[in-house]
Amino acid sequence: MLLTIDVGNSRIKVAVFEHNKQLAFFIFETNEALKNFENIFKKYSNLQKIILSSVGKLDEEVVNFIKSHFQTEIIDHKSKFPFTNLYATPETLGIDRMVLAAGATLIYPNQNRLIIDAGTCITYDFVNNENQYLGGAISPGIKIRYKSLNNYTSKLPLLALSENFDIIGNSTKSAIHSGVINGVIFEIEGFISQYSLKNQDLTIILTGGDTEFLAKRLKSTIFANSNFLLESLNLLSLYTQKND
């Protein structure tokens, strides 16, 4: 039984796996980490291992608490991955992007794969059919776009994601919704289109906090899985065991 932990920029996601089957899922704020891990460890006292990926900040007290209870593997740039990393600056590549690329490589072998993670930032990562990681792109996520319009102007209001938007905004609020939401959709469709032109049989995976909202609005055929990183951590752990 394995516990996977994804420490993001704003929240922590946790899942319990037995082989490839997910048994439980948890999500909570970083400042509630210690209390939640205490409860999880009580409920799943027979865990064999924990595997952790972090792009956010986790208090040292929490990290030490986790390590003191179970064997813990923290993924870093020296970990084993099932692809060749051809990024020009591999030491700067986000661990979350590497884990997602690993999961895509293991689930969809010998295919061209584009992983789109729509969270705080929107990241695009490409692994070709020779299992070579080539890179991708990083752009502001939906919440950042709303906040930027408010922070860098004197009169535009701070809005939250809305289900109601149109291509033509007939008020300042609806114009902001149109610009932010349609901008993200057009961006993602544009990236998919360009990658598809250059790579046949492209497999597209959409993940991250805004997966559900975006998946039903994209025209392209995608595999939508908001918790793909947690599943990728589980697969990466199994891969490491087989290749030690």
UniProtKB/TrEMBL annotation:
It catalyses: (R)-pantothenate + ATP = (R)-4'-phosphopantothenate + ADP + H(+). Its EC number is 2.7.1.33. GO terms for molecular function: pantothenate kinase activity. Its main location: cytoplasm. Pathway: Cofactor biosynthesis; coenzyme A biosynthesis; CoA from (R)-pantothenate: step 1/5. It is found in: Cytoplasm. K(+) binds at residue 117. ATP binds at residues 6-13, 120. Its cofactor is K(+); NH4(+). It holds the Pfam family Pan_kinase. A monovalent cation. Ammonium or potassium. The active site is at 96 (proton acceptor). It is an enzyme of class 2 (transferase). Substrate binds at residues 87, 94-97, 172. Keywords: ATP-binding, Coenzyme A biosynthesis, Cytoplasm, Kinase, Metal-binding, Nucleotide-binding, Potassium, Transferase. InterPro entries: ATPase_NBD (IPR043129), Type_III_PanK (IPR004619). Homodimer. HAMAP family: Pantothen_kinase_3. Belongs to the type III pantothenate kinase family. Catalyzes the phosphorylation of pantothenate (Pan), the first step in CoA biosynthesis. This is Type III pantothenate kinase. It comes from Flavobacterium helocola.
